[in-house]
Design goal:
185 residues, mainly alpha, 9 helices
Length: 185
């Protein structure tokens, strides 16, 4: 009898912790959803407050950090607020710390770097992702997008072909390759 009580106490604590973790993820997701709704209405400060709450409730939620970063990025660009752009860059990095394959986060950070004239850093960011995840077509597709936007159509086409070698029927890669070929005549 005496030994079973501590075991049940430990199991009870684990069950409570697990249910609270699930609860935190649910609340964080609902805060993120509300923030996105507010963002779509251009209510930036209210959206930031929702995303900040989501990040506080579930500090491991990469989407909360991505949403914060994207909002700071947008407001920083619209209102010419360099401090917001610096904050966006830090938050994009925090998102990638939590999810190293977060596609939208890689895209947002690469765009931010390019907007600041840091194209080589953007290329290194996405090339590093490809190097770490060579079998992830999304990494190659984002690198191809960046090359295309920077005017290096050949490098973009090569990355798209490499992504199609991984997943032959990737709709986005096929459309992008078709666009590049059409532009090339």
């Amino acid at each position: 009898g005496g030994r079973s009580r501590p075991l049940w106490s430990v199991l009870g604590c684990l069950l409570i912790a697990a249910s609270l973790g699930g609860c935190a993820r649910f609340i964080s997701a609902s805060k993120n959803a509300e923030g996105v709704r507010l963002l779509q209405q251009d209510k930036y400060q209210q959206a930031l407050a929702e995303f900040q709450q989501a990040a506080r409730i579930d500090p491991q939620n990469p989407d909360a950090f991505y949403n914060l970063a994207a909002t700071y990025h947008r407001v920083g660009r619209l209102e010419n607020r360099p401090g917001y752009l610096e904050q966006a860059e830090l938050l994009y990095q925090q998102c990638l710390d939590r999810d190293p394959n977060h596609v939208d986060c890689h895209r947002g950070l690469a765009v931010l770097l390019c907007e600041q004239g840091r194209q080589q850093e953007a290329i290194r960011l996405l090339q590093g992702w490809v190097d770490r995840q060579p079998r992830l077509p999304e990494a190659r597709i984002e690198l191809a997008r960046l090359y295309d936007e920077l005017g290096n159509k050949q490098a973009g086409a090569e990355e798209l072909l490499a992504s199609l070698a991984i997943v032959a029927h990737n709709t986005w890669a096929l459309m992008a390759l078709g666009k590049l070929r059409e532009e090339a005549g």
